[in-house]
């Protein structure tokens, strides 16, 4: 096992937790293009964002839009992992405490000043279980208490016990101003933040239009004001579910940016378009372990994992452009660089068949398995946003059918998957789910794979792995290399019993036409630039 801890939070980056990736790092080439004054910028979304309330969503598409409307306390560069100022001009960190010092003169889009108390109220809102924020336990520990000192301009976030990666996680919160905080539903299709842009039009499943505000001068690392050359005057997000269509619009100049994967990448690269990219998880498989489900049996989970042939599945999912994931918390820059997926059951179709038989799942004359009169029927759902996902899902269905299971299959967009996994209404409707839970630090995913299931909690697979829980408890008391060793133990405990199966990672590229990003790492909010 290979571990490398990225020492100190200043070298650890995180993204807003989402069920898919929201921003990418890498290198973009502007080829000496000039910056444009008061230009327009347009970007594709692969699904409708739904609610834009920043404290009440984990949608990737929503996060992309929210990044333009709301600011964060600090900016963590996905490329280098370095922490830069944003709303906070200074910060200090202890294992159980982060203290932010606000910049002076920050205002909300309605002109009201942003106060330390409003910032503290944001964190307390998420931490309050009664508010049902999906960010509770992810970005904000449930036992966190935030306090404000208006005289010193400071906000103190405190937990009763050490909280791993507290600065990184809390840095992913988009800060809402008071009216939006009092009524989060009011900003589901409006905006009330300190961001450089305000939402001026929302047409679900079609487009979202944003307009630059005046007087903004507190961008990340003090790189952006309302008057910075290249900052767009207006931004349009277009909902384009077909990646080939997005690629066509990029090439024609009707889009400035889009995340594109698969075969379309070749023609975008050939056209000389710039790109920002980093390796990101592309395939993660979860089994439903509700009582009575076939997949509650570890023998079934291991057999299905062996039979699906992960090396081949990874090649299909990534179109031969990626590899098997090395770890679960793999969004760059990762908090703990570990290699844990070697603990997954190895590809072995014959072994899988024998394991199912030994567990009492017997084949009949039609090649179908059952146990004690109960057929091995599996409902398989998956996120079909990637253009390779349908082929990969069909391959998996074929492998499991050959094994003797009867497999129904249904793909959908991110909103479909969130409804199935996190609403608490559909826990019994699926057995196998493919959905990427993209996190930079291993502590962020804990509520999704341990603890109570929806609607009481977020553990959508009803996973109860004592080895994982024990290693998480140990990791939470440690720092540095020792903490990463314990997090590695935790991930390996999940993989040994096939509770979670990360099976594919690949470069995730945002292609650019007449646009670039500050720091050459991310195109979002105050960091986007329009060129010609």
Biggest sheet features: 6 strands, mixed
- Overall radius of gyration: 23 Å
Let me know the average pLDDT.
89
Structural class: alpha+beta
How many strand elements? 23
Give the helix proportion (percent range). 25-40%
Strand order of the largest sheet: 12-21-13-20-18-19
Rough shape? globular
Give start-end ranges of low-pLDDT stretches: 1-29
Strand content: 15-25%
Distance between the termini: 48 Å
Number of helical segments with 4 or more residues: 14
List the topology elements.
Elements: E1 3-5, E2 40-45, H1 60-69, E3 74-76, E4 83-85, E5 88-94, E6 97-102, H2 116-127, E7 145-149, E8 154-158, H3 166-170, H4 178-182, E9 197-203, E10 207-212, E11 234-239, H5 243-252, E12 257-260, H6 264-270, E13 274-287, H7 298-307, H8 310-318, E14 336-338, H9 349-358, E15 362-363, E16 369-371, E17 374-375, E18 377-383, H10 389-403, E19 406-412, H11 414-422, E20 432-434, H12 446-449, H13 466-475, H14 480-496, E21 500-512, E22 515-517, E23 528-530
Parallel strand pairs: 2-11, 18-19, 18-20
Antiparallel strand pairs: 1-14, 3-4, 5-6, 6-8, 7-8, 9-10, 10-11, 12-21, 13-20, 13-21, 15-16, 16-17, 22-23
Short key terms for the protein model shown above:
single chain, 532 residues, alpha+beta, 6-stranded mixed β-sheet, 4-stranded mixed β-sheet, 23 strands, 25% helix, globular, disordered N terminus
Structure report:
- With 532 residues, the protein is α+β, with helices and mostly antiparallel strands.
- It starts with a strand and ends with a strand.
- The chain has 14 helices and 23 strands.
- It has a six-stranded mixed β-sheet, sandwiched between helices. The chain has a four-stranded mixed β-sheet with strand order 2-11-10-9, covered by helices on one side.
